Amino acid sequence: MTYDYVIVGAGTAGCLLANRLSADPSVNVLLVEAGGRDDYFWIRAPLGLPYLLGNPRFDWCYQSEPEPGANGRRFPVPRGKVLGGSSSINAMCYIRGHRRDFDEWREAGNAGWGWDEVLPYFKRFEDFPRGADEAHGAGGELHVSAPPPRWEILEAVRAATVELGMPQTDDHNRGDNEGCGYFHFYTRNGARWSAADAFLRPAMKRPNLTVMTGAHVARLKVDGGRASGVVFRTGGEQRSIEARREVVLAAGAIGSPQLLQLSGIGPASLLKEHGIDVIHHLPGVGENMQDHWQIRCTYRVRNTVTLNDWVTNPLRKYAMGAAWLFARRGPMCAPPPQLCAFTRSDAAQELPNLQYHFTPASSQRAGGPLDAFPGFSCGIAVVRPAGAGHVRIRSRDPHEPPAILHNFLADAASQRVAVDAIRLTRRLVASRALARFAPQEQLPGERCASDEEILAYARSTVWTVFHQSCTCRMGRDAMAVVDERLRVRGVAGLRVVDASVMPSVVRGNTNAAAMMIAEKGAEMIRADAR
User: Fold this and answer.
1) What 8-state DSSP symbol labels residue 318?
2) CATH 3.30.410.40 placement within the chain
3) C-alpha 185: how far from its chain's center?
4) In this structure, are strands 191-192 and 126-127 parallel, antiparallel, or unpaired?
5) Per the count of CB atoms within 10 A, which of 107, 298, 408, 421 is most buried?
6) Tens of pLDDT along 288-305?
7) What integer pLDDT is reported at residue 71 of this predicted model?
8) What is the mean pLDDT of the chain?
């Protein structure tokens, strides 16, 4: 079995790559995915996240290593294992990042990756609800929906941000994302619109594209310093595929470095420890992992209806389900986080370092059963993390999950941000705009008052926003894994095209940036083949 291009991973980047590379009828393309198809009711329903995260049918269900800054806790690390990858199980929030994020990539020596240079690639795949302008595209495959119907409690929260002096915005994606406004989402006609929906399904009609599901890639084949194919298992059999032109890794910030290490490309000491022959010593593979970490505040309220009332009341719950099922209307048309605010934990921050996800619902734990009373929650993501972690194989077994360490709250700067973020949230909730709802803090609770008590709460509850990135980062220094054309350093015919190549994580949700990387990467692949 021989193809011109073999793409490993049918996630966000892989689906777009398969579409763009197979647009050339003179080449044939194979897309290999370990997971299965995305034909599941709760993938389509935007409110279906609790049925997806932690579901081994669609989620790799990774666990972190014991986190030193989080009381040695291990917490879930969700990653999509299905067509569409994490775009099929995430919260569908369309956020590009801040223009400064991309300019910093360029300033680090990655030519062509500044904001003005990557913006055309964002616009190319976008179908923005207000049409095309200098910042947005129209007619692309990715349908971006307008903000959902307003909840009274979220309108009050937005008014509270005005009282605190936060800027207001109706679009976080024009370069400067600071301010409070409603999310835009990857939805279409009230349903999830994943990378598989947008890019892969239309391309699957082409005779030169083959999509293989249930195929777990075990290692890359490298001959004479060149990637020549992949070895994978499917249906209990081991099989091999050749690539005439390139092998492209799009397995994500955990899967791509894991596969490189299993193939003998990575830190020599790690590979030797697990009895793997060193094909190419590349010390940065799996290192420098960055992710956004999150803590939560939840509140009980009065004199209003929240999502809690819809889900915990049987009549309302069935009415909500019927409205979505038959008319694609009602509360099920939007994911739980709906109002977004980018702001600063303190005045000394040069740019926003916090991203609030305001949800018209509350629960005792993230993803757990909703409270029986009206409530709302504030997920506070730190989008400029100070620390970095790693992804490292535990053995030469491709089915054994790697060791994933984040190092959340391991440094004094992060600890200060956690305390400041909770205190900022309390000032917000104490505003006049929310007074008539009489918000009562449930988490962390009013008895959590001192800096030490707030930090203890943060350590006991901090968790990933599953925006892992930077584990095969782009750059020119000794720890860089790929160059500015996403070619793996020292191995010909091999690229990494996914969120792992980010030099530093963007300030915001990473899914849109991963699509941009794939759009730009596909253009580079086709140009280099000429």
Assistant:
1) H
2) 148-182+293-382+409-461
3) 13
4) unpaired
5) 408
6) 999 999 999 999 999 999
7) 97
8) 97
Confidence at 150, pLDDT banded by 50, 70, 90: confident
Decide if pLDDT at 149 tops 80: no
Buried b / exposed e across 454-468, counting CB within 10 Å, b at 16+? bbebbbebbbbbbbb
**pLDDT tens for residues 167-199?**
999 999 999 999 999 999 999 999 999 999 999
Q: Which tokens hold the place of 7? A: 């793409």
Q: What superfamily would CATH give domain 1-59+77-110+185-284+468-530?
A: FAD/NAD(P)-binding domain (3.50.50.60)
- Asked if 421 and 451 count as a contact pair (C-beta separation under 8 A), the reply is no
Closest CA to 105 of 493, 524, 486, 488: 486
Inter-residue contact 49 to 367 (CB < 8 Å):
yes
Q: Are 364 and 443 in contact (CB under 8 A)?
A: yes
Tallying the residues shown for the chain, one arrives at 530
Beta bridge partners of 182: 339
Q: What is the token pair recorded at 355? A: 């991203």
Region 148-182+293-382+409-461: CATH code: 3.30.410.40
Give the model confidence (pLDDT) of 326-342 as tens digits. Answer: 999 999 999 999 999 99
For residue 65, the tally of other CB atoms under 10 A from its CB is: 17
Listed in order, the ranges of the chain carrying CATH 3.50.50.60 are: 1-59+77-110+185-284+468-530
Other Cβ atoms less than 10 A from the Cβ of 446: the count is: 9
Residue 148 clears pLDDT 90, i.e. is over it? no
